[in-house]
Amino acid sequence: DSGGALSVDYMDFGRIAQYSIGPGGIPVSNGTYSPFSLNFYAGYGLKVTQGLAAGATAKFLYQSLVPGGSSATAAVDAGILYRLPWLPGASLALVLANLGGELDSTSLPLQLKAAAAYQFSMEPDAEAVPRHSFNFAADGDITMVDPGFTNFRMGAEYWYHRLIAARVGYRFAPYGNLDGLTGLSLGAGVRYQKWELAYGLTTQGDMGTTHQISLAYRF
Questions:
Q1: How far apart are the first and last CA of the chain?
Q2: Which of 27, 69, 181, 183 has the highest CB neighbour count under 10 A?
Q3: Do 155 and 139 contact (CB within 8 A), yes or no?
Q4: Closest CA to 18 of 79, 68, 56
Q5: 151 - beta bridge partners?
Q6: Each residue's pLDDT tens digit in the chain (219 positions)?
Q7: Phi and psi dihedrals of 114, rounded to 5?
Q8: Alpha helix (H) ranges present in 64-218?
Q9: Which helix (H) or strand (E) holds 219?
Q10: Containing H/E element for 55?
Q11: Among 160, 114, 118, which Cα is nearest to 136's?
Q12: What residues contact 153, with CB distance under 8 A and at least 6 apart?
């Protein structure tokens, strides 16, 4: 048993005003720039033995976050997944992320990721597709170089007939001096046959909110 996946991430921060310091220390408008990032992923996983699977993801990262500057790199994530035989629907995962690669002359942060998930459905025997199904998950990222960037997340997902989904999550992380609500995520999804359209909103305190839209096809 094996499978693969391809993914593309694009993030656009919109137009940001530029300023230079003029005579007398007065800021002078210097136009605008549009920072963005574009990432490509290719993953492959296979069954090792009963309940145990392993996989890896190769990724190419490109970003242009400062005026007139850009950087790109490639890296690999590798991990294992174990399904608990004594608790159907429960699984544990361990991933070593960002092996190799540099962005802006700085090595990508090597991370150890650990996760746990539990899935269950109501009326599983009455219908081929359960009317109600739930997913619960928790994970953490331990940054090997600087533990100060370690963060943890928890989330829940509800599916109705596996056609419509509602999602909520929270990220516990160091956000510096940001004021306001940070770390809360809300989302929704719609599935039609092998297609799924998903939307997510993440709060960033006084930095505003991040909106993400994804379209996936399963084959």
A1: 14
A2: 183
A3: no
A4: 68
A5: 141
A6: 889 999 999 988 888 888 888 787 788 888 888 888 999 999 999 999 999 999 999 999 999 887 777 899 999 999 999 999 999 999 999 999 999 888 877 888 889 999 999 999 887 555 677 889 999 999 999 888 777 778 899 999 999 998 999 999 999 988 777 788 899 999 999 999 999 999 999 998 888 898 999 988 887
A7: -125, 140
A8: none
A9: none
A10: strand 52-66
A11: 118
A12: 138, 139, 140, 169, 170, 171, 172
Q: Are strands 36-49 and 209-217 parallel, antiparallel or unpaired?
A: unpaired
At position 20, the amino acid (one-letter code) is: S
Place of tokens 């943890």: 152
Question: Which one-letter DSSP state was computed for residue 148?
Answer: G
Q: Which of 197, 174, 172 is nearest to 185 (CA)?
A: 172
Taking the CB of residue 181, how many other CB atoms lie within 10 A of it? 11
Query: Do 130 and 136 contact (CB within 8 A), yes or no?
Result: no
Helix, coil or strand: residue 26: coil
Structure tokens at 155: 């989330």
Could you tell me the two tokens for 208? 């505003």
The DSSP H or E segment spanning 119 is strand 111-122
Residues contacting residue 190 through CB under 8 Å, at least 6 positions apart: 163, 164, 165, 196, 197, 198
Q: What is the rounded distance in angstroms from the CA atom of residue 157 to the CA atom of residue 161?
A: 13
